[in-house]
Design goal:
Number of strands: 11
Structural class: alpha/beta
Strand order of the largest sheet: 1-11-10-9-2-8-3
Distance between the termini: 16 Å
Shape: globular
């Protein structure tokens, strides 16, 4: 996981955590946020809590589920259906995320984003239509192994699971993803704005570098 060699953990109420994260999102302009975490940490569900908080203030916000930006099965399963290197490096189409989600919100961008690219279940195009971004649009991209991959994010959150929690909460059929997930987070040097101890989501703790 991201390096916090002498990290101190400060318990925080879940609603206050959401509030703190939203406070880091700039007002009055289009903005990208990132919620990173293994699927077992349910980063998309947490991103929806951020979305609801932002929407309650009257601002436009959408969640982009990284699983709606997987590569086609022919590429994901080129070597095998559970190739660890592929999962770590080529499972998700981060180039497409940049092109269809991040770049359109930049100054001078086209101002229209694509909420979904690929339907993972049917392995077909999601056939989603471009959406006009509001002048102060927030898009929260959520999923695994995003740390360090999204440029221009105004706020980055990492939901950190211990190896034990990751193993307990990952379904058996997805257990092959555990080694590449552990490797990815062990190797990344990227420091998120918020690293949250997430073994017990009802009792999170903010990790701060000592």
């Amino acid at each position: 996981m991201p390096h916090h060699h002498s990290a101190a953990a400060a318990p925080i109420f879940p609603d206050l955590l959401v509030e703190r994260i939203c406070d880091r999102i700039p007002l009055g302009r289009r903005t990208i946020g990132v919620v990173d975490g293994a699927d077992a940490a349910e980063p998309v569900a947490f991103a929806h809590r951020i979305r609801e908080r932002i929407r309650s203030s009257g601002r436009s916000c959408e969640v982009i589920d990284l699983h709606d930006y997987v590569r086609p099965a022919s590429l994901r399963f080129e070597y095998s259906k559970n190739d660890e290197l592929t999962y770590r490096t080529a499972w998700f189409d981060f180039d497409a995320v940049d092109r269809e989600v991040v770049a359109p919100l930049r100054a001078g961008g086209r101002g229209r984003f694509l909420p979904r690219l690929w339907d993972e279940a049917t392995d077909r195009s999601a056939r989603a239509r471009l959406v006009d971004a509001a002048p102060d649009q927030v898009l929260v991209i959520a999923g695994p192994t995003i740390l360090g991959r999204i440029d221009d994010a105004a706020v980055t959150v990492h939901l950190k699971l211990s190896e034990g929690a990751l193993r307990r909460r990952t379904p058996v059929e997805a257990s092959w993803t555990i080694p590449p997930i552990l490797t990815y987070y062990a190797d990344t040097e990227f420091e998120p704005d918020f690293t949250v101890r997430w073994d017990h989501p009802d009792k999170p703790a903010l990790l701060t570098r000592g």
